[in-house]
């Protein structure tokens, strides 16, 4: 990973939008700071699109799409995108799987949830699980004492044994049925909402993240950036981002925003 200041000036100037994770990328110690929120707003005011790409649940993403200075949100690790049309007062919701399939999957996920909680002492069902439409989130450090890596790995193993796609975030292990991920739904959203073919325009978008579940985005975007706490996952990243900030979490995101805006 190269330091952020090596991001070429001409490439910075050509960036049209910023995609970003939420937990420990926008947030700091579990909270969205005023500075990180203001950084999103400043990016939008400079005519850059801002789209969070998160593992957080549908219930939260409805609020984010409506209330935050963003152009939409991809949630539950790619299960859907939401985009709110303020003029029409209408929420566009696009899911990777049908409502019927999601309902059937939730029944199967409940059995897997119970098995994991029984076999991995100290973990818990994530506090935001009731607001999820398509996945299972197991908490390993958000509202519980941080579990050792071998326990996190066991959660992943138990999910995969039952046919789930499993990804580790900075706070949860998320599992779901299906082969979608953050990148597949991001590409769908860009095409359907903005008429953008990311394959031909990926150099015009920066992605900012912090954990292993961001790996598809780190691999795809040449101008992918990790906030400094990405180094907490050294040795666990299938693919590291091209650049890294000096500061951690929300302060790192603000660093990215200021850096991009300085080139406008």
Write the layout of secondary structure elements.
Elements (H helix, E strand, L loop, with lengths): L1 E2 L5 H6 L2 E4 L6 E2 L2 E2 L1 H12 L3 E4 L5 H10 L5 E3 L4 E6 L4 E6 L3 H21 L4 E2 L10 E4 L9 H13 L3 E4 L3 E5 L5 H13 L3 H4 L3 E5 L5 H6 L3 E3 L16 E2 L4 H13 L3
Parallel strand pairs: 1-15, 2-5, 2-13, 13-14, 14-15
Antiparallel strand pairs: 3-4, 6-7, 7-8, 9-10, 10-12, 11-12
CATH C-level label of the largest domain: Alpha Beta
Report the end-to-end length measured between terminal Cα atoms: 24 Å
- The CATH superfamily of the largest domain is known as HAD superfamily/HAD-like
| CATH fold descriptor of the largest domain | Rossmann fold
Question: Poorly predicted ranges (pLDDT <50, ≥5 residues)?
Answer: none
Describe the structure.
This protein has 264 residues and is an alpha/beta fold. The protein folds into two domains: 2-96 and 180-261, HAD superfamily/HAD-like (Rossmann fold, 3-Layer(aba) Sandwich); 99-176, Hypothetical Protein Ta0175, Chain: A, domain 2 (Alpha-Beta Complex). It has helices at residues 9-14, 34-45, 58-67, 99-119, 149-161, 182-194, 198-201, 215-220, 249-261, and strands at 2-3, 17-20, 27-28, 31-32, 49-52, 73-75, 80-85, 90-95, 124-125, 136-139, 165-168, 172-176, 205-209, 224-226, 243-244. Helix 2 runs parallel beside helix 9 (249-261). The mean pLDDT is 97.
